Amino acid sequence: MGLDYYMSQITNAMTVDVEDYFHVSAFENTIAKNDWDKMPLRVEHNTHRLLELFEKHNTKSTFFVLGWVARRCPELIKAIVEQGHELASHGFAHQRAIGMTPEQFKADVVQSKHILEDISGKEILGYRAPSFSVNDSNTWIYDVLIELGFKYSSSTYPIEHDLYGVPNWPRFAYRREGLVNSGESIIEIPVPTLRKNNVNTGIGGGGYFRLYPYWLSKRRIDKFHQQEQQPYSFYFHPWEIDPNQPRVKAAPLKSKFRHYINLSAMEGKLERLLQDYQWATMKDVYL
């Protein structure tokens, strides 16, 4: 069997970080959390569009949902579960884990987990930190997640980046032992990277996927499969298929460039991605 056959058979993990355009870290200094309730809500409609797209391509995904969104849109949470997707936590208020105390972090995650479980009736096994905000300064996070019953996290991106990144951390799924919870562990699933000349390049989705032409993203995914023979995981957000979202004019130019680049092309690229590879949930691929 050739490489093309192998790549067509491997099952990869599709993930969606369910947050609205005004939740993103790039706008956290421009839009106050107290104003979130006043902003036009677009996440519900956009996520339903994704559910339709996934159904069209017979794809199951993991939805890392903000507790804030779940509280505002309980019927959306029910629809995600009813259509056979996995529900996971993205925290409650999209607060980066860096800068939070263990008590603040635990309160945020507990609130999110309880809301998601109460609405869905499903146990929440997975967690993703907003903006991949786990690094050497807050490894205690894994003890909190173990204590709360989570089985996996996908909260690290092993690249150099101005907002996040742990380039020296593992690049593939591995067990993270608890520091306090001796003998217990949780699986950490990093965002995929390509490695060349001892430098990691991000290929996991999001802004990189919108910025580059689809052929380049596909070539990088294929190279990842060829070099590493590991499942690939992809992440993106519902606002990324919404070119008509309100513009945050007061945001810094760099943040606006990152947020708005190629929004109109994203849905078409995503459809090609769903056609070219096999996809399943994080739970099914890694657990």
Question: Please, could you describe this protein's structure?
Answer:
38% of the residues lie in helices and 15% in strands. It is an alpha/beta fold and 287 residues long. The relative contact order is 0.19. The model has no long low-confidence stretch (mean pLDDT 93).
Q: Number of helical segments?
A: 11
Q: Please report the distance between the alpha carbons of the first and last residues.
A: 27 Å
Question: Major sheet: size, sense and barrel closure?
Answer: 5 strands, parallel
Average pLDDT, to the nearest integer?
A: 93
Spans of 5+ residues with little confidence (pLDDT < 50)? none
Radius of gyration: 18 Å
CATH homologous superfamily grouping: Glycoside hydrolase/deacetylase
Percent range for β-strand residues: 5-15%
Offer a concise description of the structure.
Helix content is 38%, strand content 15%.
List keywords for this structure.
287 residues; alpha/beta; TIM Barrel; 5-stranded parallel beta sheet; 4-stranded mixed beta sheet
Question: What topology does this entry show?
Answer:
Elements (H helix, E strand, L loop, with lengths): L2 H7 L1 E8 L24 H14 L5 E4 L1 H6 L1 H9 L3 E4 L12 H19 L5 E2 L13 H7 L4 E2 L20 E4 L7 E4 L4 E4 L2 E4 L3 H6 L2 H15 L4 E4 L16 H8 L2 H14 L1 E3 L1 H5 L1
Parallel strand pairs: 1-2, 1-10, 1-11, 2-3, 4-5, 5-7
Antiparallel strand pairs: 6-7, 8-9
